[in-house]
Amino acid sequence: MSVSRGILGLVAICAVIVLLALAGLALAFATQLEFSIDGLLLLAVCLMMGGIFSLMLLLLAKEAGWLAWLPFPRKKPAAQAAAANPANPGAGQGK
């Protein structure tokens, strides 16, 4: 199985879970669910599942390069970090 096919399978699974979570939220509000403990837990589970799998979708899209236009914070390679912040030779020594 190729890498792109594996990523597309994961994207499809995550998208289905997100859609089911959104459908659960919509159904809860459409049926005027009571705000008892049962209703609050249903809303919390739908929000949690939608949030977790939306984050997974975002990370998969970032890894696949589909979100190249979004600015993500990037770590500097070790060589650039050392050049930007040279070590102070006298900083660690006591006087």
Architecture overview:
The protein is mostly helical. The chain has helices spanning 3-30, 37-64, 78-84.
Q: Which structural class best describes the helix and strand composition? A: mainly alpha
Write down how many β-strands occur, each being a DSSP E stretch of 2 or more residues.
Answer: 0
**Averaging pLDDT over every residue, what do you get?**
80
Task: Specify the helix fraction band.
Answer: 55-70%
Q: What portion of the residues fall into strands of 2 or more residues? A: under 5%
Order of helices and strands: HHH
The span between the termini is 62 Å
C-alpha-based Rg, rounded: 23 Å
Summary, kept brief:
The protein is mainly α and 95 residues long. The chain has helices at residues 3-30, 37-64, 78-84. The longest helix is centred in the N-terminal third of the chain and has 28 residues, at 3-30.
What's the SSE blueprint?
Blueprint: H1 3-30, H2 37-64, H3 78-84
Helix pairs in contact: 1-2
Keywords, separated by commas or semicolons:
single chain; mainly alpha; elongated
